[in-house]
Write a structure and sequence with these properties.
Largest sheet: none
Order of helices and strands: HHHHHHHHH
Radius of gyration: 18 Å
Strand content: under 5%
Number of strands: 0
CATH topology: Tetracycline Repressor, domain 2
Number of helices: 9
CATH class: Mainly Alpha
CATH architecture: Orthogonal Bundle
Number of domains: 1
Distance between the termini: 46 Å
Helix content: over 70%
Length: about 190
Amino acid sequence: MNRTKAIEVAAQLFLRTGYSYVSMDEVVRVSGISKSNIYYHFKNKEELLQAVVQYWIAQYESALYLLLSQRERGVEERIYSFMALLSTGIEDRNYEGSCPFITLYMQTPASAPEVKESISTFFRELQPMVEKLFQQGLDRGEFRKGIDPGPAASLFVAALEGSLVLAETARDTGIIEQSARTFCQMLR
């Protein structure tokens, strides 16, 4: 329980303040967990950062697996519900770290290459998941024939990441929804 709380607190602090500006002492203070307990779970800040990245990966992957499994729902409807989930997360974080992966990737020090590799792996695995979702849309007749789900998925991920950054800078999550709606219109 203490490990999970430390990760959740660190996740918020890293996105709000920036990884390099957050000390282990601040994680101790904000979480209310003893220093010895924090160091029992994480030998250093890089290990805590890796745990934070794994925390975000688990959250996003579970949401994506759920979307893929809900075959009774339309693909566009599932995409929009995922965008709503992303928007709510961004609003809950007060527009800080719109895409936790990009934010943390940019902040990762050279001393933690495994963190960057974890984030890179997440993005490599994200594209085929979106591709499967688009294939479901083709199979259901929601998207027009002739669309190649692989390149469409790659473009969608790039557009999604861009819309997350724009939503943060404009403090407007409507940008995310509009981007997804426009993308889906182009697939029909």
